[in-house]
């Protein structure tokens, strides 16, 4: 990773922290930091992505503004994380998308919806588009099977490839001789930390979600969003098996497995994303990186819109509004797939990688558990 003003600032902050060590029990970052005397750019990238932005070290720090040291570790790490997203993006030129990410996400989503609507209007007779359709294959009478599977499959496979290449770039750049060999135990530890968001627990009392007071709201809203997303993905996977393996095309009854998974996943996504947007609006802005808020709001809005249009489609699928709603929902889903590697969604990938590297260092005996 390249040297920038942000890497210089992160290095300065970590050298002060390494002398102070007051926050060493706060999170995984400090024990990992204490192993290092010097910070190469790869180390900085690793520590920035290991940070869960709980803000505890800002409110506890005697060197935070207005002190002349002006230490603001959560803000510095957030800015550095954004630079790592651009640095590891694949193909490399598309890293530029992270510079005005909020605008790009909003633009691609709008274009995705417009394109899906225009294509549907062009290929379908208006009487088909505005008529009510029922029974197996009703969705394909509005948008043909070949078009739906080509667009959805193509964009999703591309996103998987770009994410895998981004992860490879992150893993190579943050390589460390401190990490032990990969094995089942470090992987299990990392998976536990990822799935429970242990680093947002603040050792049990929670984090500084809004201000100096401790809370677990962000952790629970994030859980609702994350598991909601997984349930929606499971719903799509089950529906794919029903359609292509069993030969039973959508739409399915309300109590069927794909619809139940999708409904509860959609509700989780709406609750989680709305809660996280609310927390961002009401929280103290001092430890936040304000120039990155647009990217945060845009992604949360896109996820919320995906689930809302999915739920609306479920509710109105037996009516004449189904055709237009299906086109809008498909346009949003395609935009989401395309933006997976070029939006803040990548934070989950790199943070998981940082947690795995941290687990390898812990199991090699270098780092004590962070609780
Ligand atoms: S954030 Fe402040 S209090 Fe915490 S270790 Fe760093 S210098 Fe010390
Ligand atoms: S913001 Fe929280 S997770 Fe990040 S370094 Fe500070 S204490 Fe650790």
How does this structure look, described?
This protein has 371 residues and is mainly α. It has 2 domains: 5-88, no CATH class; 92-362, no CATH class. The chain contains 15 helices and no strands. The chain has helices at 5-20, 29-34, 41-50, 56-59, 73-88, 101-123, 126-129, 138-142, 145-173, 184-196, 217-246, 257-282, 293-316, 322-339, 346-363. Helix 13 (293-316) runs antiparallel to helix 14 (322-339). The chain is elongated, with a radius of gyration of 22 Å. Keywords: Membrane, Transmembrane, Transmembrane helix. InterPro entries: Citrate_utilization_prot_B, NarG-like_sf.
Topology record:
Elements: H1 5-20, H2 29-34, H3 41-50, H4 56-59, H5 73-88, H6 101-123, H7 126-129, H8 138-142, H9 145-173, H10 184-196, H11 217-246, H12 257-282, H13 293-316, H14 322-339, H15 346-363
Helix pairs in contact: 1-5, 3-5, 3-15, 6-13, 6-14, 9-14, 9-15, 10-15, 11-12, 12-13, 13-14
Keywords: Membrane, Transmembrane, Transmembrane helix
InterPro entries: Citrate_utilization_prot_B, NarG-like_sf
Transmembrane segments: 102-123, 143-167, 224-242, 262-282, 294-316, 322-342
